[in-house]
Amino acid sequence: REGPVDPWARGIALSGLLCFALSFAPVYVPLAGIVPGLSGMRVPARFYAFTSFAVVYFAARGADHLLRRLSSPRARLVLAAGLAVLLAVELAPRRIAWERLPREAEMPRAYFWLRDQPDVKALIELPLGDAAQENGYLYAATIHWKPIANGTSGYTADSYLILANHIRLVPHADGFDLLRQMGFTHIVLHTGTTAVRPKVAERWEERFGSGPERRMDKVYEEEGIAIYRLIQ
Predict the structure, then answer these.
(1) Could you give the CA distance from residue 108 to residue 104 in angstroms, rounded to a whole number?
(2) Buried b / exposed e across 147-171, counting CB within 10 Å, b at 16+?
(3) Phi-psi region of 101 (alpha: psi -120 to 50; beta: other; left: phi over 0)
(4) Which tens digits make up the pLDDT trace of 11-20?
(5) Which residues pair with 188 in a beta bridge?
(6) Is residue 175 part of a domain?
(7) 71 and 108 both lie in a single domain
(8) Fewer CB within 10 A of the terminal residue: the chain, N end or C end?
(9) Would you say 121 and 146 are in contact if contact means Cβ atoms under 8 Å apart?
(10) Of 57, 91, 125, which residue constitutes the final position of a domain?
(11) Cis amide linkage into residue 26, ω under 30° from 0
């Protein structure tokens, strides 16, 4: 276009390009560690909302420019209708692949047992896992409502990092000491998974459930889940 560039358009273009770059983790993550306040966005994908604003602004300007260049009212009507159809297709609702959550009656009975035990003060579910697995632990906690070490968020708590560094799959001597120091009274172990196979759980239980290294007592068991009380 002729004449000076609109400062608003220039600002929106630059901010849109910047937010587009920040919507990618390789750009956002290093900068979040050094630019104050940037980590407050928590995930880079949120910057795309600002990128979309710039895209919408320039798309509207382009549509307005095209409509002004058409002298025929019918041509403008056809163009406007075509743009409306494209917008409707873009915004049309799409089927979402939902994953059904189990109802309360379908949950393992171990969580109901935890609910009814007054000596269960705080617990950790093992093995620690990815966000999907940790969310499963959070969902199960709505049955017993006891404090748990597990969870997921945009921020990772220092206490969780300490637990993850000391307890990969199951705790050993230093892990038991750490759990007691942090106030945990029980361990919920999910066996039969790819991470904790039954033989691994059996050897661990044999070592720390009896003998000179005894650190725990098994207090509940059902298929795939065992609960242990820490010896304080």
Answers:
(1) 9
(2) ebbbebeeeeeeebeebeeebebbb
(3) beta
(4) 999 999 999 9
(5) 125, 227
(6) yes
(7) no
(8) C
(9) yes
(10) 91
(11) no
Residue 199 inside a domain? The answer is yes
Same-domain check for residues 84 and 111: no
Instruction: Tell me the β-bridge partners of 189.
Output: 126, 226
Does residue 3 surpass a pLDDT of 70? no
Same domain, 193 and 124: yes
User: What is the C-alpha separation between 201 and 221, in angstroms, rounded?
Assistant: 12
Does residue 79 share a domain with residue 23? yes
Please choose, from the candidates 13, 14, 24, the residue with its C-alpha nearest in 3D space to the C-alpha of residue 46: 24
Placement of tokens 């035990």 in the chain: 117
% of the chain with per-residue pLDDT over 70: 99
Does the pLDDT of residue 131 top 90, yes or no? no
Give residue 127's pLDDT.
Answer: 92
HSE value, Cβ hemisphere, 13 Å, CA-based, for 174? 7
Q: Are residues 219 and 112 in the same domain?
A: yes
Looking at residue 171, its pLDDT comes to 92
Mean pLDDT for the chain?
91
In a domain, 99, yes or no: no
Partnered with residue 228 across adjacent β-strands are 187, 218
Boundaries of domain holding 154: 104-230
- Is 172 part of a structural domain of the chain? yes
